[in-house]
Specification:
Pfam families: DUF559
Number of strands: 4
Structural class: alpha+beta
Radius of gyration: 16 Å
CATH topology: Endonuclease, Chain A
Keywords: Endonuclease, Hydrolase, Nuclease
Helix content: 40-55%
Oligomer: single chain
InterPro entries: DUF559, Endonuclease_DUF559_bact, Restrct_endonuc-II-like
Number of helices: 7
Order of helices and strands: HHHEEEHEHHH
Strand order of the largest sheet: 1-2-3-4
GO molecular function, one term: endonuclease activity
Shape: globular
CATH superfamily: VSR Endonuclease
Protein name: Endonuclease domain-containing protein
Number of domains: 1
Strand content: 15-25%
Protein backbone atom coordinates (compact mmCIF):
# COMPACT_ATOMS: atom_id res chain seq x y z
CA UNK A 1 0.00 0.00 0.00
CA UNK A 2 1.56 3.29 -1.11
CA UNK A 3 1.77 6.25 1.21
CA UNK A 4 0.96 9.91 0.58
CA UNK A 5 3.36 12.86 0.91
CA UNK A 6 3.25 12.52 4.70
CA UNK A 7 4.09 8.81 4.51
CA UNK A 8 0.59 7.74 5.51
CA UNK A 9 -1.14 4.88 3.70
CA UNK A 10 -4.69 5.09 2.35
CA UNK A 11 -5.86 2.86 5.22
CA UNK A 12 -4.30 5.19 7.82
CA UNK A 13 -6.12 8.17 6.29
CA UNK A 14 -9.57 6.56 6.59
CA UNK A 15 -11.91 7.58 9.39
CA UNK A 16 -11.86 5.26 12.41
CA UNK A 17 -13.94 2.13 11.89
CA UNK A 18 -14.05 2.36 8.09
CA UNK A 19 -11.92 -0.75 7.48
CA UNK A 20 -14.15 -2.83 9.76
CA UNK A 21 -17.28 -1.46 8.09
CA UNK A 22 -15.90 -2.23 4.61
CA UNK A 23 -15.06 -5.80 5.64
CA UNK A 24 -18.56 -6.28 7.03
CA UNK A 25 -20.17 -4.91 3.85
CA UNK A 26 -18.00 -7.14 1.66
CA UNK A 27 -18.94 -10.25 3.62
CA UNK A 28 -22.65 -9.40 3.82
CA UNK A 29 -23.35 -8.38 0.24
CA UNK A 30 -26.92 -8.22 -0.98
CA UNK A 31 -28.21 -10.37 -3.84
CA UNK A 32 -28.17 -7.41 -6.29
CA UNK A 33 -24.56 -6.64 -5.29
CA UNK A 34 -23.55 -10.27 -5.77
CA UNK A 35 -25.26 -10.45 -9.18
CA UNK A 36 -23.66 -7.25 -10.43
CA UNK A 37 -20.23 -8.27 -9.07
CA UNK A 38 -20.38 -11.56 -11.02
CA UNK A 39 -21.56 -9.76 -14.17
CA UNK A 40 -18.81 -7.12 -13.93
CA UNK A 41 -16.09 -9.74 -13.55
CA UNK A 42 -17.44 -11.81 -16.45
CA UNK A 43 -18.20 -8.93 -18.81
CA UNK A 44 -15.16 -6.74 -18.13
CA UNK A 45 -12.24 -9.12 -17.43
CA UNK A 46 -9.69 -6.43 -18.37
CA UNK A 47 -11.13 -3.84 -15.97
CA UNK A 48 -10.33 -4.09 -12.28
CA UNK A 49 -13.41 -3.33 -10.23
CA UNK A 50 -13.21 -3.00 -6.46
CA UNK A 51 -16.21 -3.83 -4.28
CA UNK A 52 -17.06 -1.61 -1.30
CA UNK A 53 -14.10 0.71 -1.89
CA UNK A 54 -13.57 3.49 0.69
CA UNK A 55 -13.23 7.14 -0.41
CA UNK A 56 -12.69 9.40 2.57
CA UNK A 57 -15.82 9.14 4.68
CA UNK A 58 -17.76 7.43 1.86
CA UNK A 59 -17.76 3.85 0.58
CA UNK A 60 -18.40 3.21 -3.11
CA UNK A 61 -20.30 0.03 -3.99
CA UNK A 62 -18.15 -0.64 -7.08
CA UNK A 63 -15.17 1.31 -8.37
CA UNK A 64 -13.00 1.03 -11.48
CA UNK A 65 -10.12 3.40 -10.72
CA UNK A 66 -8.57 3.43 -14.21
CA UNK A 67 -11.94 4.17 -15.80
CA UNK A 68 -12.66 6.72 -13.02
CA UNK A 69 -16.08 5.11 -12.66
CA UNK A 70 -18.15 4.44 -9.56
CA UNK A 71 -21.28 2.30 -9.71
CA UNK A 72 -23.83 2.57 -6.93
CA UNK A 73 -26.75 0.24 -6.28
CA UNK A 74 -29.49 2.08 -4.46
CA UNK A 75 -31.54 -0.20 -2.27
CA UNK A 76 -34.46 0.56 -0.02
CA UNK A 77 -32.24 2.47 2.42
CA UNK A 78 -31.25 4.98 -0.27
CA UNK A 79 -34.83 6.24 -0.72
CA UNK A 80 -34.54 8.51 2.33
CA UNK A 81 -30.92 9.62 1.81
CA UNK A 82 -31.17 11.91 -1.22
CA UNK A 83 -29.15 14.76 0.34
CA UNK A 84 -26.46 12.36 1.57
CA UNK A 85 -26.26 10.74 -1.88
CA UNK A 86 -26.05 14.15 -3.59
CA UNK A 87 -23.20 15.23 -1.28
CA UNK A 88 -21.44 11.92 -1.81
CA UNK A 89 -21.78 12.13 -5.61
CA UNK A 90 -20.50 15.72 -5.52
CA UNK A 91 -17.45 14.64 -3.48
CA UNK A 92 -16.71 11.72 -5.82
CA UNK A 93 -17.11 13.97 -8.88
CA UNK A 94 -14.60 16.41 -7.36
CA UNK A 95 -12.21 13.45 -7.02
CA UNK A 96 -12.56 12.98 -10.79
CA UNK A 97 -14.96 10.02 -10.79
CA UNK A 98 -18.14 9.59 -12.79
CA UNK A 99 -20.94 8.09 -10.68
CA UNK A 100 -23.77 6.02 -12.15
CA UNK A 101 -26.63 4.67 -10.07
CA UNK A 102 -28.95 1.73 -10.45
CA UNK A 103 -31.71 0.43 -8.22
CA UNK A 104 -31.88 -3.07 -6.77
CA UNK A 105 -34.79 -3.68 -9.16
CA UNK A 106 -32.66 -2.63 -12.16
CA UNK A 107 -30.00 -5.19 -11.27
CA UNK A 108 -32.46 -7.97 -10.44
CA UNK A 109 -34.82 -7.50 -13.40
CA UNK A 110 -32.76 -5.75 -16.09
CA UNK A 111 -29.15 -6.84 -15.62
CA UNK A 112 -28.53 -6.74 -19.38
CA UNK A 113 -29.60 -3.09 -19.47
CA UNK A 114 -27.39 -2.28 -16.48
CA UNK A 115 -24.38 -3.92 -18.14
CA UNK A 116 -25.15 -2.10 -21.41
CA UNK A 117 -25.13 1.23 -19.56
CA UNK A 118 -21.84 0.39 -17.82
CA UNK A 119 -20.31 -0.70 -21.14
CA UNK A 120 -20.78 2.85 -22.43
CA UNK A 121 -18.70 4.14 -19.51
CA UNK A 122 -15.87 1.56 -19.49
CA UNK A 123 -13.22 2.15 -22.15
CA UNK A 124 -12.07 -0.80 -24.24
CA UNK A 125 -8.47 -1.85 -23.64
CA UNK A 126 -5.92 -0.44 -26.12
CA UNK A 127 -5.09 -2.61 -29.13
CA UNK A 128 -2.60 -5.25 -28.10
CA UNK A 129 -3.57 -5.09 -24.42
CA UNK A 130 -6.14 -7.56 -23.19
CA UNK A 131 -7.41 -8.36 -26.65
CA UNK A 132 -8.99 -11.58 -25.49
CA UNK A 133 -11.01 -9.70 -22.89
CA UNK A 134 -12.25 -7.18 -25.42
CA UNK A 135 -13.27 -10.02 -27.73
CA UNK A 136 -14.90 -11.82 -24.84
CA UNK A 137 -16.82 -8.67 -23.86
CA UNK A 138 -18.14 -8.32 -27.40
CA UNK A 139 -19.24 -11.95 -27.51
CA UNK A 140 -21.00 -11.70 -24.17
CA UNK A 141 -22.85 -8.56 -25.21
CA UNK A 142 -23.85 -10.21 -28.45
CA UNK A 143 -25.00 -13.35 -26.70
CA UNK A 144 -27.22 -11.36 -24.33
CA UNK A 145 -28.98 -9.60 -27.17
CA UNK A 146 -30.13 -12.81 -28.82
Amino acid sequence: MRGNADGLTKRQLLPTGTTTKVRTLRHNRTEPEARLWRALRETFPDTKFRFQDPFGRYIADFCAHRAKLIIEIDGDTHATTEIYDANRTHFLNLEGYHVIRFTNADVMHNLDGVIAEITIQVPSPPVGEGGSGAQRRGRMRGSRET
